[in-house]
Amino acid sequence: MSGEKGFTLIELLVVLTIIGILITVGVPYYKNSVIKSKESVLRENLFIMRKMIQQFKLDKKRYPKSLEELVENKYLRAIPFDPITNSDKTWKVKREEPPETGAYYEEDLGIVDVFSGSEKKSPITGKPYNEY
Question: Which of 29, 85, 96, 122 has the fewest CB atoms within 10 Å of its CB?
Answer without folding.
Answer: 29
